[in-house]
Amino acid sequence: MFFKLEAQQIVPAEGYRGDPKQPLGVRIKDLMKRMTLEEKIGQMTQIERKVATADVMKQNFIGSVLSGGGSVPAPKASAQVWTNMVDEMQKAALSTRLGIPMIYGIDAVHGHNNVYGATIFPHNVGLGVTRDPDLVKRIGAATALEVRATGIPYAFAPCIAVCRNPRWGRCYESYSEDYRIVQSMTEIIPGLQGDLPAKSKNGVPYVGGKTKVAACAKHFVGDGGTVNGVDESNTVINSNGLFSIHIPAYYDSLRKGVATVMVSYSSWNGRKMHANRDLITGFLKNKLKFRGFVISDWQGIDRITDPPHANYSYSVQAGISAGIDMIMVPENYREFIDTLTSQVKANIIPMSRIDDAVKRILRVKFVMGLFENPMSDPSLAKQLGSQEHRELAREAVRKSLVLLKNGKTPSQPLLPLPKKAPKILVAGTHADNLGYQCGGWTIEWQGVAGNDLTVGTTILNAIKKTVDPSTQVVYEQNPDANFVKSNDFSYAIVVVGEVPYAEMFGDSSNLTITEPGPSTINNVCATVKCVVVVFSGRPVVMEPYIAKMDALVAAWLPGTEGQGIADALFGDYGFTGKLARTWFKSIDQLPMNFDDSHNDPLFHFGFGLTTKPVKDNY
């Protein structure tokens, strides 16, 4: 077989790709009848970037590659370094007998968060506060452009979990405890993938070309409902509860043409979701008519057994039989390929199940134009961290803030703060720490502390940019009471919160802010008028400190554009956000949600004070 090499394009001489004008079904059938079992199982295999050499891609007919959290070609890699890497893998895939392009996936869960210099948007917990589906759609479109700027066509987003207990370490990945808000936020899917053409069929995947990416609704299903919020554990709920709380957002996702669905590590009433044929095949595929592909989570089938990988042969059989189409292996690919191959040859898994999986994977690849445009587009590099996207993130930050207290008495509000004051104090561990401001899933899987991780504006720098040039800004991370007393500060801004975490590392039994946050609040707010800004992935313990502070702002995990916080603090814009989570008084009240008959929270779901913008606030 011969290849004709052209700039940015590799065209197999064989004409199996046929005519893009041919009906999709014809193209899929035509290709599948040429495929060997080995080539089919290769399509079902997703491997980690670190093991995806050109030889591995070619010899195993690998269908998909991913970056795990923090898995990058080089530290602070540019868009070009990313595209070179992805294109090299793609060239290897295209050089196989049939030249089927691979699909590269990455967790772009609040912007293109693994990539240096990308715009980092607020995490979902903040976006739910905005109750603004159009904003989230625009964020999806911006994220798609930045992901494509690095040559990647597939994002493992959105997470449409309904977090019902803030102890869960992934609660910040959930838009709300109210499934209706989560449903409305699925508008990010047409942002990522493009608007569905008129008369599209429910459940049929759609991706609108080279500036869009395949999206992934995750984690199917019940990930946000586990007992005590323990990550990956057991959601104990009756069928009615599962279908009325955790499943509704999947209806919306499928209606909007979501290309893929990722299965949850968690169990439903003791049964692992990765082995749940009734819900994956019976419900999602057969009843809802989902026509995209179902993907496992990272080593998701391994974790069907306890301990994980205790009986891999069983895991492969259970996961594939349940209806999972693509397995995120992600490293020990030979074991997966050999195990599945032997099971098919022994008639343990029927060929019809393999064909169903491959048909779905090829459908998504055809629909998104991967066969016509398998290589990266260098003209998109300028989209990464563009000014336009940073302005959008700044707007999202403003709209995601919730003003929980403003003044010791309503008649004496502290906010908006005057820009002109002789001397102001900025304090707290989180005031000048971009990594804390962004949270987990930023550059590294667990996030990174400090200011060297990526490009952005800390709240301290935003304050300095916003106040009058004559205002002296004093920054002291953890001032003692004497320091505060001995200076004549007009007011203080105290920024405290949680440190970054992701997944099970964020599971928390106490939900407290990081030390010395509480003592900073006490030392500062005892002496000077203060607004406390909290960076956290969920409601945290605040009740003991609330009386001491003059104002309180929940800023969630706002990302790189800290200027959006200063915009509201100083009155250039008003506060508009309303809680999309119930804010507890003490953790022994948990779980406590808006739809409970008896709840006595610190701040009710939907609460949020508002301010009006002030012109020339000096």
UniProtKB/TrEMBL annotation:
The protein, known as: Beta-glucosidase
Q: What GO annotations for molecular function exist for this entry? A: beta-glucosidase activity
Q: Which organism is it from?
A: Anisodus acutangulus
InterPro entries per UniProt:
Cellulose_Degrad_GH3, GH, Glyco_hydro_3_C, Glyco_hydro_3_C_sf, Glyco_hydro_3_N, Glyco_hydro_3_N_sf
Residue span(s) of domain Glycoside hydrolase family 3 N-terminal: 36-364
Lipid metabolism recorded as keyword: no
Q: Locate the Glycoside hydrolase family 3 C-terminal domain: which residues?
A: 401-610
Source superkingdom: Eukaryota
